[in-house]
Design a protein that fits this description.
single chain; 356 residues; DNA polymerase, domain 1; Nucleotidyltransferase, domain 5; 3 domains; six-stranded mixed β-sheet; three-stranded antiparallel β-sheet
Length: 356
């Protein structure tokens, strides 16, 4: 007996192939399916969508047989004892992969076999082989990693990489003529807060310091706390004298944000407010046309769609907050500052983890 359309439906579920068992009609009407990959087990139609019976690759080598016992012991010791920051320093373990390993250890205990990594999200057979090789031969990767790390040279001032890797969250801040927007994002590229503050008092009449202090202090009071604050470095040509008022305005806001957000610097001499060149973010996302940067609005909209439709999206928006973010994004006038704040946060982490 075959149900029309069932073949198309089943091939979309975890690459499993199912067949109807030859059972009496009374049993068949209970809608049992038997999986060809996990023979001996029956599943109801209500259950089979939750199965994770991925067919093994017949050409894939046994991961544990690829390495000598002493090599496996070294790799497993690193996977089971290294902190997230230490794992992030290994090739291919930057970003979410290092977080997924730590999460898996906390939920399921230490790894006992290398093939256990196949159960961790984002890990496939070829990736695991390369990770093991990087752990066993770290010196071969040092030169390449150092070269990639220098891609952070446009982020000023320079901060030790270990401090950046140890940071749980950052707040990316972008400011314009009337708006200050921010995106609070963690190392998993989960958006914790995404908002903006608007003022129509800027650039009206004389540049009163008291007015700037009031407006910018109001915005800073709403910006979440974070380990680092990343500010966009405006890129307006000083050769165009007509833009001098705008340049003065942006430089004033930039200086005040550095002072207000980095108030702890005089005590510990640790920089927590960084600046990133606007053009570098544009090049990272291929938004540059010549020397001009185009809008990233469509890219951010795609991030929101992928957050719902993809299993491992590039950016994760919590589902309970996504409708609010979408409304804010749609009602905002073009929402360019909002877009740029989010893109800057994503680029910062991807630069940090050498995923660009």
């Amino acid at each position: 007996m075959w149900v029309p359309g069932l073949r198309r439906l089943l091939t979309r579920v975890h690459h499993c192939a199912f067949w109807w068992p030859k059972l009496p009609n009374t049993v068949l009407h209970q809608h049992f399916l038997r999986c060809t990959q996990c023979r001996g087990s029956r599943h109801t139609l209500a259950e089979f969508q939750r199965l994770d019976c991925v067919s093994p690759d017949p050409d894939a080598d046994d991961l544990d047989e690829l390495f000598a016992p002493e090599q496996r012991e070294v790799v497993l010791r690193v996977l089971n004892t290294a902190s997230r920051e230490e794992l992030a320093g290994i090739k291919l373990l930057r970003g979410r992969k290092s977080a997924n390993i730590v999460d898996y250890r906390e939920q399921h205990g230490p790894f006992t076999q290398l093939r256990g990594l196949l159960e961790v999200p984002l890990f496939k057979h070829k990736t695991i082989k390369k990770v093991c090789q990087s752990i066993l031969n770290p010196l071969q990767e040092t030169g390449r990693q150092e070269k990639k790390f220098h891609g952070l040279k446009f982020i000023k001032p320079e901060v030790e990489r270990n401090r950046l890797l140890a940071a749980n969250t950052i707040v990316s801040v972008v400011f314009g003529i009337r708006k200050i927007a921010w995106a609070h994002v963690d190392q998993n590229l989960t958006v914790l807060d995404w908002n903006q503050e608007e003022s129509h008092r800027y650039m009206k009449g004389p540049y009163l310091p008291s007015l700037y202090l009031e407006e910018i202090s109001s915005a800073v009071s709403k910006i979440p706390k974070a380990d680092f604050f990343v500010l966009e470095k405006p890129s307006i040509s000083i050769q165009n004298t007509k833009l001098f008022p705008v340049t003065l305005h942006l430089r004033t806001i930039e200086a005040m944000l550095h002072g207000l957000l980095g108030a702890g610097y005089p005590d510990d001499r640790q920089h927590r407010v960084l600046s990133v060149a606007r053009t570098a973010i544009g090049k990272h996302f291929k938004l540059m046309v010549g020397e001009a940067r185009t809008s990233g609005r469509e890219l951010v909209q795609q991030f929101m769609v992928d957050s719902v439709t993809e299993e491992h999206p590039r950016v994760l928006f919590p589902r309970d907050a996504l409708p609010r973010y979408r409304r804010l994004f749609q009602k905002s006038d073009r929402g360019e500052e909002l877009c740029d704040a989010l893109l800057q946060a994503v680029a910062f982490y991807e630069f940090l983890f050498n995923n660009s």
